[in-house]
Amino acid sequence: MMLNKGKRRITLALGLCLLFGQACSGGAPVPEKPVTASPVSLEKSVNQAKPPAANPLYEDILNREAAWLSSLQLENGAIPMSPGGGPYRVVPYFTNIALLGLLEKPEQAPVVRKYMDWYFAHLNRTAGPDVPLGSIFDYTVEADQRTEKASGDFDSTDSYASTFLNLLRKYAEATGDTEYLLTHRSDIELIAGAMLSTKQADGLTWAKPAYRVKYLMDNTEVYKGLVDMEWISGTVFGDKAGAAAYRKHKKDVFAGIEKMLWSDDKNAYAFAKMEGGELSYPNWDTFYADATAQLFPIWTGVLAPDSKRAQQLYAAFNEHHPGWPQLNKGDAFPWALLAYTAAIMGDRTRVDAFLESVRTTYLDRDHPWPWYVMESGVTMLAAAHMANMKKE
């Protein structure tokens, strides 16, 4: 059975390659979903936010990618996968993660807010058998940058929602604009409901109602979404009971990941649990989804980076796929998410090698495909994390 994440990384990626007339072989991977870098504290406004420590490499990446990402915004507020003359492909999951990186430059907050306005305006407000209330479809926007058509589908309902909740929290902390979240409270709670709509008795979520597979990647993202929804509910909404409810869901998902997916015997997580209960454990030599999924618990905060398990998983990944910092993985996409994970692990050598590689391969060449929004934003997250990390 083709995996949902494989569909996101492979089916979607290959479709986009065909759409943009590009070959999808060699060099880099399709991204998964990343998480936010350490957010700016709530007390700091856009103008007060402390800039990352000066570093020629990191500053260059942050400045260039902020300019590129913001330039992609369409008139209607949507941000597509990549530039062009239209039609534009808008995949909210990828944009959500990309803008987590853009908020490393808080002066770009108006771009993020305009996109969030678009997202709220496109929520599915009528539920169906396979369409949860508060979910959102992928969209195509025509060359006029306003005429839109919903695809009628989404790659997932759990991760689209969770990553938007990540974005809401980071926006609030980067800008201090909690009023925006308060204004949209009912919609935010709808989105949280969509995230949890496929949660099962074992604590894990199906990717979407019509695709009943429980993915390690999705569920770690749901965990992160619940961390942020607990914060939004308690800190912004002042709703202690609501925060407690999301905390309970968070603990359920965490327990599901640890009890249902982790194997002491294999020293690895199952990257998928099928509807019938069958577990898929990784072949470490298979880059995606087997090996890459093992890093998701690290950047989503399920595992502390200094924990023994995180260290073992990260070491195993690098042992089996040592060439990723040089974009040597036999995969069509850069996989900036690997660099962000490496940054969280404090691995400056590999992060810097990756940043130099993508700067030469993509940034200096005007961002050719398969560079796209999520790669850009997650590269910003990695650069910002390194800029803010104490020098060794």
Automatic annotation (TrEMBL):
<dbReference type="InterPro" id="IPR012341">
    <property type="entry name" value="6hp_glycosidase-like_sf"/>
</dbReference>
<protein>
    <recommendedName>
        <fullName>Glycosyl hydrolase</fullName>
    </recommendedName>
</protein>
<feature type="signal peptide">
    <location>
        <begin position="1"/>
        <end position="25"/>
    </location>
</feature>
<keyword id="KW-0732">Signal</keyword>
<dbReference type="InterPro" id="IPR008928">
    <property type="entry name" value="6-hairpin_glycosidase_sf"/>
</dbReference>
